[in-house]
Amino acid sequence: MIRLAIVNDYELVVAGVAAMLSEDRHRIRVTALDPFSDDLDSVDVVLYDTFGPVHSSMDYLDALIRKGHAPVIVYTWNLRPAAAREALERGAAGYLSKALTGPEIADAVLAVVGGEVVVSPEVDPAAALVGGDWPGRVVANLSAREAEVITMIAAGMSNQEIADLSYLSINSVKTYIRTAYGKIGLQRRAQAVRWAIDNGFVATPDTTAATRDRHD
Q: How far is it, in rounded angstroms, from Cα 171 to Cα 124?
């Protein structure tokens, strides 16, 4: 269970985000965090709503990052690339649009907890802000996490091996596989391996192991 704290002065905002994430309450527990609190080590990730605290947004971001070890995600309507770049340079682990759906926020939170830096696609160019592109982003609109999972499938890994290596639950791995397959138009693992090879994914010599029929 991931402990997500929302830093915001307004209870309505916290309740609204919690409601959006209600379908993911089995894996994400939402709590409110006083903007002046120092208790950041009690949570796994912080969602910082820049509309809430009356402080300068970036100065307060610095304070949040200094206070604890939990990664901080900026949650905002300000989608200017310059603002996103500054937030990331100051140490933010993500920069998310308030236009995202609940499942999209949940996916971003999980990715950040897994060590990724996540930027909403509305911030252009998001790929440049997080340090580059990844295979499958342009041709199939794969997220970085979906591309990572496809790469590991092409390397011959089982779902459990992918989960162990990525620090994801087996159900999350299956979800990423299902969404990636849906975007690519695939049904079987062997098809995914061939697609990965044809689209620039790096496969190891063990790739042939992935062509065995397995249930995803």
A: 31
Tokens 């790469």, located at residue: 151
In angstroms, the CA 62 to CA 194 distance is 45
Q: What is the pTM of this model?
A: 0.59
- Which tokens hold the place of 152? 């590991």
Residue 133, sorted as left (phi over 0), alpha (psi -120 to 50) or beta, turns out to be: beta
Domains and CATH numbers, the chain: 2-129 (3.40.50.2300), 137-211 (1.10.10.10)
Coil/strand/helix, residue 196: helix
Question: What value does the mean pLDDT take over residues 119-123?
Answer: 81
Q: What is the pLDDT of residues 26-56, one digit of tens each?
A: 889 888 766 566 666 778 999 998 765 444 5
Pick from 77, 169, 56: which is nearest to 120 by CA? Answer: 77
Q: Which residue did the predictor score with more confidence, 124 or 49?
A: 49
* DSSP structure class, residue 93: S
Spatial distance between the Cα atoms of 61 and 138, rounded to a whole number of angstroms: 32
For every residue of 14-62, DSSP letters joined together read HHHHHHHTGGGTTTEEEEEE-TT---GGGSSEEEEETTSSSS-HHHHHH
Q: What does the DSSP 8-state code read for residue 208?
A: G
pLDDT of residue 133: 54
Cβ-Cβ contacts under 8 Å for 39 (sequence gap 6 or more): 33, 68
Averaged pLDDT score across all residues of the chain = 78
